[in-house]
Amino acid sequence: MGYGFYRDEEIEPPHKPIPLAMFLIAEEAIRVSWQRLKDRLLPRIDLRTADEDEVTHDLYEVLFDEVFGKGLVDGFDNERFTVVTREAKLRNYNGSLLDKMPDLLIGVAGRSNIYRRTQDWLFIECKPIDVNHSVGVHYGAKGISRFTRGDYAWTMTSALMIGYASSDYRIDPKLTETLVGRGLEFEVLDLPKICPRSVVTLISEAVYTSRHRRPFTYVETEKIAPPILLRHLWLQRPTLSVPQSQTPR
Questions:
Q1: Across the chain, which distance is largest between two alpha carbons, in Å?
Q2: What is the DSSP-derived secondary structure letter of residue 89?
Q3: Distance of CA 174 to the CA centre of its chain
Q4: What is the pTM of this model?
């Protein structure tokens, strides 16, 4: 018995874009989750010093357990999204690597006519940014490059990066300077610019966007992958206070 009639047409990568509205809703949900973590009276971790995995896991739990579907953020519910998950194992663009694990994945509801459901997500990668975690090495080489080389979001045309930033680190100039100086490495097409629909808050900068080439070729079509638009949401970590005895005079 043949099953070919289940496919009316050939569907190829890349997938259709995720609407900007979905990113704006998800980003607001992340801000609300971050604020809840900062407001904890008895926090499980210290956001000032906790490592990337600890911070991301707590953010994930608050985002999905306490914010999703609770009416705290308009639209962040089962009508528009499906699930939030953490470090699911996905294959890269050519299947040579089967254990790529993006930090967070948010499923968007109502997505049909897509090539691979396993690869259709709002992809999120999270990185600390401070004196011990530079923008170039950690945020760039261990974050941005995973999108440009086809490890993450290879079927998508946009994705989100989150920075856990110390108080003296800002997208402009820190990220801008890095992408200017290492433009070839990070396949830069467009330098960071503010998303006109995003706003500054007490706990975050406005979201910036940058655009990057992806020089890999889809094995399914032998076509070069289109550029990817990365959105950058930098969340402010609480400030480490200086003990009174060590306060400079």
A1: 84
A2: -
A3: 18
A4: 0.92
